[in-house]
Each structure stands twice: as C-alpha cells, then as structure tokens.
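Cross-posting from the modeling subforum.

Setting up a comparison between two proteins and wanted a second pair of eyes on the formatting. Protein 1 (sequence, then structure tokens):
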Amino acid sequence: MSIIRSLGCALTLCVALATPSFGEEGLVIASGAGYKRMVSAICAAFTAQTGIQVQQVFGNMGQVTAQARESGHFDFVLGDKRFFEKTDLAFSGEYVVGKGRLVVAVARGSKVKDLDDITSPMVTRIAMPDSKKAIYGNAATEYLHNKGLWEKLQPKLLIVGTVPQVSAYVVSGEVDMGFINQTEAMAIASKAGRLIPVDEHLYSPILIVANRLRQSPHAKASEAFIAFLQSDEAKALAQKHGL
C-alpha cells in the first residue's frame, strides 16, 4: 500500500470518527471534502462580518450525513442537492450555493492531451472518488458509462473515498489522471500537468446547496448565515472557487 493511500485512509477515518467540540454559541456546518476550501473561505468571511464562530466538519457525503443524523448538533450540511434528496435528513430550508462541474486532472509529466487519451496505453491508472460516497464519483461513473468506457477501464480505475484523495494521487504522480471537481481543480492547478473539463451533457447536473437541518440548535446564528449566503460577497466567493 502506498504512503498516500495509507494517509488517505487514515484521514478519512479521522473525519468519520472525530467529534466536533460543540459550544452553545456559533454554528456547525458539515460539507463534502471536495468543497473544504470554499466552505472555509465562506465561513471565514461570515465570521469576519458577524463575529459568529463556525465549526466545520468535512468528509465524504456518507460520513457527513451520518454525523448530521446522529449528533443532533449540526446546523447546515452542504453538498449535492440530489444526494440530500435520497437521505432521511429533515431540512427546514435549502439555499443554492452554485453549480458543480466535473474535471479531469492530469499528472505532471503525462503526455495526455485530452479525454480521448483515457483509453491509451500511456494511461495506466485513473483515480476517482467512490460513487457511493462522493458526488463527483457518481458524476465520473455516469460519464464513463455514457461514453461506453466503464467496463473497458476497470483495470485502470483506482476508487478512493474523497475528491482530495484523488488530487493527492494526481499531484504525487501515482496516477495518470483523476476525476475531481472544478473547485479542487482550481486549487491544484499549479501542481497538475493539465486540467480537462468534462462535457456537462455526459453526467447529471450538480447543484450545490446548503441545507439547514430542522434540528438546527443555533437559530439566530443560522438566520445570520442564511442572510450571508444570499449576499453578493458569498456569491462572489462561490464563483471564485469554481461554482
């Protein structure tokens, strides 16, 4: 097992098991790991404007929804609208953050020029998030099925838990290509050889939303966060991070 794979598994486990330090004040927001940078930026701007502290929890969406269900302390969960529609979580409001996009990151040194090269012998390993746990794993699976490549590429596929784990493999050169989201792609642009947008007609639309949980324990802080999400500043931050 590679060092990166070992570390990735350990980090994922930590996210799954860690219990946030919940206080009486502030907010608790959980999000898919692929949006950590964006969520952190939005939360930092919100805190700077309001003084309200935000605890942030990240992991794959399966972990995020499980923690939200079991803890009773979460105020918001952020991720794919379709994913939340399949859960049994009860929400009191939905707030659109932006539109997600699937991107393929190519490792430095690779001769890959476009997605047609994905079946080439020069591509030996392709990383993607688990379709059962991550939004973009599902999108990548849809894309490969729609292109008729799913079965053909099975020997090359490396399935991992989260988008950041895919990025780690691409940046290290342990894989030739990896399916990630545009937000993550922008963050690793200087460390990747090439970033290739995937045709949006070949996977289902991804709408990223922040859903307020019906059990949200911090009413006033939640109302303030909703107002901030609808502000020009929050929208600009989402756009800056690829939504």
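Protein 2 (same layout):
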Amino acid sequence: MDDTTYIVATDGLTKRYGKRNVVENLDLRIPQGCVYGFLGPNGSGKSTTMKMLLSLVRPTSGEVRVMGRPMTRATRRELLGQIGSLIESPPGYGHLTGRENMRVVQRLLDLDDKQVARAVRTVRLQDHLDKKVGNYSMGMKQRLGIAMALAREPRLLILDEPTNGLDPAGIEEIRELLGRLAKGGVTVMVSSHLLGEIDKTATMLGILSQGRMIFQGTRDELFAASTPDVLINCSDPQKAHRLLTRDFDTSLENGTVRLPGPGNQTTAGVVAALVGEGIGVYEVRRDEQSLEDVFMDLTGGGGL
C-alpha cells in the first residue's frame, strides 16, 4: 500500500522523556475504513502515541502523516478538524443536560443542527438528552463523549479505552457502534485492555511492547506468526513426559502431554521418537489459541 491508502502513517515516531524512550521508532500504518485495535501492556506507549497523533504531545523525533499530509503547526488545525477523539475520561459538564453539552460543542465547532442530531442518533442517546450528565451511567457518558467526537463528522476517530468502567451491555453497545462507524466509512483507532472485545471488533491490529511495535497486521496474520502448543494423547503419558523433558519444556495436563510451540518437523520427530520407545500415540493436535494467548506470547506475559 502507498501512503494514500493509509489514513494514519508514522515514520520513526519517537517520544523520549529524559533518558527513557516511551515510544521508539514507531512506523504505524492504519488503512482507511478499518477498526484498528491498538494493544500493549500498561506503560507500553499506547496513550502517548495517540496523543502524538492528536498533536497533544510533541514527538521527540519522527513524522506523523494524517490523510496523506504531515501533521505540522501549519496543517494541525485543518487536520484536527477531520479527527474526533475520546482520550482518558469522557468529556461533559455534569451539571448540564446531554442536550446542553451538545450545544456547547455545536457552538465551539460551529456545527449545524443536523450534524449534532446525526451524532446523537449514531450513539443512540436521543432519548436521554434532557437528563443531567451527572446522572448518566458510565456507558451513557462514554456514548456522549463519542457523540461529541462524531459531531464534526470526522474521517478518523481515536478512542483510548472507550469501554472503561462499562458493564457487559455497555461494552456490547460500544462494540456494535464501532462496527457501524467503520461500515459507514469512519476509520476507528481504539485501544483497550479487553482483548476479547478487540478480537471481535478490530479488522487490523497493532501490538506495542516497551514502546516498540512488535506486530502490525490482520488477525489472521497475527495467528499465522504464532506457533501454538501441541497436545499429545498417548498410551503412557508419564513416560512420554519424562522422555520429552530432556529436550523440551513439556508439561502434563490431565493425562495429555503439552509441547510448547513446536514446528511441524519437530512435532513429527517427537511422534516418531515416542513410537520408537513403544508408546502408542493416539492423537496429536494444535491447541486452540485466543488473541490473549498470542498477545501474552508476543509480549512475554506482560499485563495490559
């Protein structure tokens, strides 16, 4: 893909605080019209990266291009006019109603009534506009924040942990909303610690670890890059386990031998060796992996 295909592209994006690199040489590529799941352990640099994309934090070095244009002082205002965002806690004045909060945004951005109404309908908040935001549930506050971000009809929406504090119903609402937005042509970049939700929503994934991009691509490409464990059912699992622990970090789980991440050739050699020792091999299969399994493998078990 060339740069015109990407709504966001960075080259060598770096942010350093003192001697510590929070983000290092990041080459981010976000295609148009996708939901881009941005993952990484706590402290990996996700929020700092998002703030650099929004020009809230100045990079130490590197370049940010949005919609094919460099983000500079000269272009910042125009480019940000096409970007909606929800970073950290949702915005809004608790003593005002949802409608009054949307009017504040309308005046600040010089929007018309149709734009505001469309944003409110998109997040399905039209029946709650006359309630004070201080009485909103967390899910309603998140939806109001997204409505504020959508009111300017952005081409790009950047959301940092939009499902924080939500119950399962609220999480489901946000997930459906992100899918609808992407189908409507809005590119969504979303970070989340809920890997299962990202797995259901994102069409592209980027994984950070210690400020560096360790994977970027589709879900299928991610799983292809990871080799799942092999599970072996055999006639004498205790003996098989003893034999294999000489060369592998195997484990024995409910009578099944687990061999961590071997390739096909190694697996074939293991089966041949077990049969040669008089052990009957009944079944050999790859363990099913979730996004969380692959994430933990890539990041060395770092928590989100």
